[in-house]
Design brief:
The structure is a single chain. The chain is α/β, with parallel strands linked by helices. The chain has a single domain, classed as P-loop containing nucleotide triphosphate hydrolases (Rossmann fold), CATH 3.40.50.300. The chain contains nine helices and five strands. Helix 6 packs across helix 7. The longest helix has 15 residues. The structure holds adenosine monophosphate. Adenosine monophosphate binds next to helix 2 and helix 3.
Length: 190
């Protein structure tokens, strides 16, 4: 199994690249943000809870997110491996993911991080907001809060995976094709 954490701040291009890489490597793509948005659209209990955090640009609590992620993984027993997009975002989530992989007799092969400067992220998210219809992309204050939340709670995972020799940084600025190429060079080695 190949299990990869695709990492980076909001707007780094994780979702776009995961869609391409899942086809190339025949992996199951799980985006926790997409699962939350699906639940919001369908007005589920999980969706209502998640929305109150997402609208402010804050993270959904760990317990809720971890249970949801586990359920998504359990739905795909036939998977060759996973691309985790937007998860883990806290150290508790990273620990839970490591335990989950161990239970399944596998592990995380690596974290591949898209590195993009903050001001480029804000511009990309505002542009995406014009097309995506995502409420959290339409408002610059919410975008900046998501980036702040990233530095408060998520950026620390870089050193978490570096300690395990599992961190691989990739320049996330360029054309979609150029970035895919850079990511593939890392994926092929994992
Ligand atoms: P994303 O689509 O990855 O940008 O996520 C959109 C929003 O969903 C985030 O701003 C959070 O509110 C929530 N979210 C997604 N993934 C997680 C996670 N792993 N932990 C907590 N909240 C998350």
């Amino acid at each position: 199994m190949k299990n990869i954490v695709l990492f980076g701040p909001p707007g780094a291009g994780k979702g776009t690249q995961a869609e391409i890489l899942k086809e190339k490597y025949q992996l199951v793509h799980i985006s926790t943000g997409d699962v939350f948005r699906y639940n919001i659209k369908n007005a589920t209990e999980l969706g209502n809870l998640a929305k109150s955090y997402m609208d402010k640009g804050h993270l959904v609590p760990d317990e809720v997110t971890i249970n949801m992620l586990k359920a998504e993984v359990e739905k795909r027993p036939e998977a060759n491996g996973f691309i985790f997009d937007g998860f883990p975002r806290t150290e508790a989530q990273a620990e839970a993911l490591s335990d989950l992989m161990e239970e399944k007799g596998t592990q995380i092969n690596g974290m591949v991080a898209l590195e993009v400067a903050d001001e480029i992220l804000v511009g990309r998210l505002l542009e995406r907001g014009k097309l995506s219809g995502r409420a959290d992309d339409a408002n610059e204050a919410v975008i900046r809060e998501r980036i702040a939340e990233y530095y408060r709670k998520t950026d620390i995972l870089k050193s978490y995976y570096q300690k395990q020799d599992h961190y691989h940084g990739v320049d996330g600025v360029g054309s979609i094709e150029e970035i895919t190429q850079r990511l593939c060079e890392v994926f092929d080695r994992l």
